[in-house]
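My current task is to audit a protein record that another person submitted. My question to you is simply how this chain folds and whether the tokens agree. This is what I was given:
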Amino acid sequence: MELVVATRNKDKVREIKELLSDLKVRILTHEDFPNFPSVVEDGKNLKENALKKARAIAKFTGKLALADDSGLEVEALGGAPGVFSSRFAGENATYEDNNQKLLSLLKGVPPEKRGAVFRCVIAIIDPEGREVVVEGVCRGRITEKPRGKGGFGYDPVFEPEGSERTFAQMSLEEKNRISHRAKALKKAKEALRKLKVLSGYGSS
């Protein structure tokens, strides 16, 4: 069984590969396909973007495709940046640009009002066109300054509930035990087995 990860983000690919390592599935990426399409993420929400990417890559490759769209929802900002998380500071924003804009907007906001939720929506489409959409969330808070060198995206400023460390201060293995993406992928694997897409290809 082969599964194509519908993203060009190497950091996401690395995490997804690690989280699916218990399955007997060959993970393919954009590097395995010439002319791998870039999909415009113009959906109104994470689900729309995830489905759009999964459908496009499933059609292009003719294989089982998985797409992830994730967002950070900050309570003090009314749920922003949300679906615009990857381009919060502009279309070509770096991870650092986005983090600096977020921290700037939250300057002076007390710890008890810096609550946030990391949300991940995963869409999987098989060659027969069957679709699975699942969601995972991780609650926490936004720190006052970046901490840690690991992870990517908003990891240096997100401290999950029950921890005094940010995602960026954790190992990949630690993060993958509690992250929004880990929770979503766990649900995705369960849903796929029920559809028998992965029947006989892995263990729980």
